[in-house]
Design goal:
six-stranded antiparallel β-sheet; two-stranded antiparallel ribbon; 8 strands; 0% helix
Length: 99
């Protein structure tokens, strides 16, 4: 629960990437090199939002607990209590999954 002690600033979003599939649907185990980069993540913390030209706060478009689609490259790796998290700007997140 290290992310509870960490609050992103402005329009930053702290996410935890989902783990890569290690076994195919047919039961074949995949080596690490052949596993693709996981582009899905869960939002664990969000900043208050960015300030626009008029001085009003523009809130972040995602909420804690939502699953989002990330770009293949980008983000800043953050290690909190030996666990990897990534910081993205709100505008860099490609979309969110809805139920």
């Amino acid at each position: 629960m290290a992310f509870r002690k960490f609050l992103p600033l402005f329009d930053r979003v702290l996410v935890e990437r989902l783990t890569a599939e290690t076994v195919t649907k047919g039961g074949i185990m995949l080596p690490e090199k052949s596993q693709g980069k996981v582009l899905q993540a869960t939002v664990v913390a969000v900043g208050p939002g960015s300030v626009n030209q008029k001085g009003h706060v523009q809130p972040v478009s995602v909420k804690v607990g939502e699953k989002v689609l990330l770009p293949e490259y980008g983000g800043t790796k953050v290690i909190l209590e030996e666990k990897d998290y990534f910081l993205f700007r709100d505008g860099d997140i490609l979309g969110k999954y809805v139920n």
